[in-house]
Amino acid sequence: MDNRPFELEQVYDAPIEEVWRILTDEDDMKEWYFPQLKKFKPVVSYKFEFTDDGSDYKKEWQVTKIDEGRKLGHSWIYKDYPGSSEVIFELFPVGNKTRLKLTHTGLASFPDDPHFARRRYEDGWKQIIGSNLKNYLKNQTS
What we know:
Radius of gyration: 15 Å
Family: Belongs to the AHA1 family.
InterPro entries: ASHA1/2-like_C (IPR013538), START-like_dom_sf (IPR023393)
Largest sheet: 5 strands, antiparallel
Structural class: alpha+beta
Order of helices and strands: EHHEEEEEEH
Protein name: SRPBCC domain-containing protein
Number of strands: 7
CATH class: Alpha Beta
Number of domains: 1
Helix content: 25-40%
CATH architecture: 2-Layer Sandwich
Strand order of the largest sheet: 1-7-6-5-4
Oligomer: single chain
């Protein structure tokens, strides 16, 4: 098992306040993060709510960290499956731009099953952070 955290960084052509808003606004999150998101609040211990999309892998996420304007962390757990991981989004100003550092820890705690393969998370985050969020921000700020 690979116990290393998965880390990914991306620079966005948007001010940190705008990236934070889109990172923590329930309606925006449905667009770039998870369309199944039903309820979210950037408050420690808040439990995300998702619509039932029929998946066997139901998410049970909870906000673990908030540093207003800078850091959002949440658990990444699947109902009825062993394992617990955490995702942390950290924002850093770079002039008029924003650098986002994503860290996903605990991936090795999930079952040895193709659905939980590290490569799936790596590819997923590259899509979510490198494409979905980047394009969403571009459309919001243009």
